[in-house]
Write a structure and sequence with these properties.
heterodimer; A: 285 residues; mainly alpha; two-stranded antiparallel sheet; globular; disordered C terminus; B: 405 residues; alpha/beta; Rossmann fold; eight-stranded mixed sheet; six-stranded mixed sheet; 14 strands; 20% strand
Chain lengths: 285, 405
């Protein structure tokens, strides 16, 4: 039981790091970025290529964050001409990018599944309340919690965050105040994408790196965003933790319905609270 | 009614139109090989080696081709006095790529015999092609029961294994070694996974054992096994039997150790769990995992020692896998069959294969064809560290085993 709860948190916090960028970009700039999963996979492969020690792990994290930020900037520029078009056009463009990136990753890293070792000292297990649990996953819980706090503080308590929230609420009004909201968009896109690639590196020792992983995590991230509500850090956090627990406990308690239970949770949220748990009227458009 | 017959009519016309085209194709491309073989006794034979060169099974394809080439290199590229010409084609991952590859070597390359095939669906899908062309296929991996069972044709033989054959050996062993009152079985939810679990359960229960739980995680979609591992712990199982391969084998074995199950509930599996390239990726987590298989490069017999040595020399020091050995043996049995067949057509070769008796110089130890699948010894293996490299060390010879009925 303890193990399942812990694991729900580990998966949940990892999902949060992945999904918060998607949520902000979608909620704020109204851009549906389907290349988000490909960014995660890029990070995972980077982690696999550099795995083997603390040096490699930290280098992978740093390189992934920078590369992710650059990729986010490029994606932001690419979607700029489509800003007045429908979500479908953005989805097509970013889906195309996702497919190209996935294929490039196969060309570079091959299509054999790769396993990634946790950094030395974290690849073992610890005993907690009589249950054995992998120490790396405990660290993920810690890192996820810290990142959640940092992102929340930045968005809710700083001037930059106020600008971001204002842009979520009313883009035109922010523009009339003399702020170039294209810059805000590029910045949010870059940070969101950097978080996605970093999540890939962090998730490597749990999920490994393999073709097809991009689509799997993208769907999870979209479910998190829908459950939590668009453009809300709190929403992404609660959505991710709920999905983490539902997914873990669902498989333990109702193994036969495991693949269905995640989407059952999604359906319930959509029926009861279509705008998501934490998206108030402010975020609605 | 008229609609149907008109469609059928069109189909017939279409089929009729392709026949001359294919015939022309065969005579222009395959003519070189059919002429000498046709004229009294075989002097040359053209073999299509259809193995994965791309996709998730590419590593298996590399091993298989190396096994095939090693046998030929050791025998001067000949089966007796018959010169062998090999045409390699890429099976890919699925029947969508595998079937066209088989079709290509049969029709445009005009080969006499096809060797290879990793994917069971591909093997089952091409069965008809061989029945129609009356040519021989030697399957050197695909383990579905139907290949030499329900979908049997006289032209399809197998030098590898049947899925349930491997797991039945483990079922008997666990029932006889103190795990009667509780084993948990887990394998991915697809055809091979189901065959492995069924074979295990039947043999284990026949030996008086009790399966305390069975679970089949979604195939190719599961990367976190924690929920299943918790289920295993709660079931009160004394041991776990599993079957995974590729990425899933790596993930499952690592997580089984990380979540602390390994010391309390020993892990047993079908040999593919720790065979080939996955073992290195599993690392220390695989230590002590016990599996059954019809081969290990650690087998102590003269034929295997020579085989392992020669294989390493030809492949930059690499160790042969069970996949290399199965394809090596395909060349061996083809050679034996050709001594008595008097021809390279499917009927002659099939008849000759039925009479080759015991293959006494195989690296896996002596074996015979029982039906069209090997009756071979199964070995209990355990993962050990041997001078810094993980190997599947032999614990026990579990005796000969046929494809379970």
């Amino acid at each position: 039981m303890v193990v399942s709860i812990l694991n729900g948190f580990a998966i949940g916090f990892l999902l949060f790091v992945l999904a918060v960028g998607l949520s902000l970009v979608f909620g704020m700039m109204d851009v549906l970025n389907l290349a988000h999963g490909a960014l995660f996979l890029g990070g995972a492969y980077l982690g696999a290529a550099l795995s083997g020690g603390w040096g490699g792990f930290l280098t992978a994290l740093a390189v992934a964050a920078v590369a992710g930020a650059l990729a986010g900037g490029v994606l932001s520029l690419m979607t700029e001409p489509l800003r007045n078009r429908t979500h479908l056009d953005q989805a097509l463009l970013t889906l195309g990018v996702a497919l190209v990136v996935a294929e490039l990753l196969i060309m570079v890293f091959g299509d054999d599944p790769l396993s990634v070792d946790a950094p030395p000292g974290l690849d073992g297990s610890v005993t907690l309340l009589g249950a054995v649990y992998p120490s790396y996953r405990l660290v993920i819980i810690g890192i996820g919690a810290v990142l959640a706090l940092v992102v929340w503080l930045v968005v809710e308590r700083t001037r930059v965050g106020a600008l971001v929230r204002a842009t979520v609420a009313d883009r035109e009004m922010v523009a009339t105040l003399g702020v170039d909201n294209r810059l805000v968009k590029v910045a949010v896109f870059a940070v969101g994408s950097a978080l996605a690639t970093a999540a890939g590196v962090l998730g490597g020792p749990i999920y490994g790196a393999r073709p097809g992983l991009d689509a799997a995590v993208l769907i999870l991230a979209l479910v998190v965003v829908v459950i939590g509500g668009l453009g809300s850090v709190r929403g992404a956090l609660v959505g991710a933790l709920v999905i983490g627990q539902v997914d873990t406990f669902g498989r333990v308690l109702l193994p036969d319905l495991a693949s269905f239970i995640l989407f059952a949770a999604l359906a319930i949220v959509l029926v009861v609270r279509p705008q998501g748990i934490f998206s108030g009227p402010v975020g609605a458009r | 009614m008229s609609e149907l017959s008109r469609r059928r009519m069109l189909g017939l016309i279409g089929a009729a139109a392709t026949v001359p085209a294919l015939a022309a194709c065969g005579s222009s491309l395959g003519g070189g090989s059919t002429a000498p073989t046709g004229a009294g006794g075989a002097r040359a034979i053209k073999v299509g080696l259809v193995v994965p060169k791309s996709g998730v099974y590419a590593a298996l394809g590399t091993d298989m081709q190396a096994g095939w080439e090693l046998w030929l290199a050791q025998h001067g590229g000949k089966f007796g006095d018959v010169t062998v010409e090999t045409v390699v084609a890429d099976e890919g991952e699925t029947p969508q790529t595998g079937q066209p590859a088989v079709q290509k070597v049969l029709q445009s390359d005009g080969v006499d015999v096809v060797v290879g095939i990793v994917n069971s669906s591909t093997a089952l899908g091409v069965a008809n092609l061989f029945t129609e062309s009356k040519k021989l296929l030697i399957v050197t991996n695909a383990g579905a029961a139907d290949v030499t069972g329900k979908a049997r044709t006289p032209y399809m033989w197998r030098t590898s294994f049947a899925n349930a054959q491997v797991s039945a050996a483990m079922g008997q062993h666990l029932a006889a070694s103190g795990f009667k009152d509780g084993v948990f079985a887990i394998a991915p939810d697809y055809a091979a996974g189901s065959e492995v679990i069924a074979g295990f359960t039947k043999a284990f229960e026949a030996g008086g054992g009790k399966v305390v739980g069975t679970v089949k995680p979604a195939f190719g979609k599961t990367s976190d096994y924690q929920p299943f591992l918790t289920q295993i712990q709660q079931s009160g199982a004394k041991a776990t039997f599993c079957f995974f391969s590729g990425a899933e084998a790596i993930t499952f074995v690592k997580q089984y150790a990380q979540f602390g199950l390994a010391p309390a509930i020993p892990l047993y599996g079908s040999g593919f769990l720790t065979e080939g390239s996955v073992l290195k990726q599993q690392g220390a987590a695989a230590m002590g995992v016990q599996t059954t298989l019809h081969y290990s490069d650690q087998l102590d017999n003269p034929a295997n020692k020579t085989f392992v040595e020669a294989y390493a020399k030809a492949n930059n020091g690499a160790s042969p896998s069970v996949f290399s050995m199965q394809t090596y043996d395909a060349a061996n049995v083809l050679n034996r069959a050709l001594q008595t067949s008097g021809g390279v057509d499917g009927d002659a070769l099939s008849k000759a294969l039925g009479g080759i008796g015991t293959v006494d110089d195989s690296p896996r130890g002596p074996w015979t064809f029982d039906g069209q699948n090997p009756r071979q010894n199964m070995y209990l293996r355990t993962v050990q560290d041997k001078g810094g490299t993980l190997v599947n060390a032999i614990v026990q010879d579990l005796g000969p085993q046929s494809q379970p009925a």
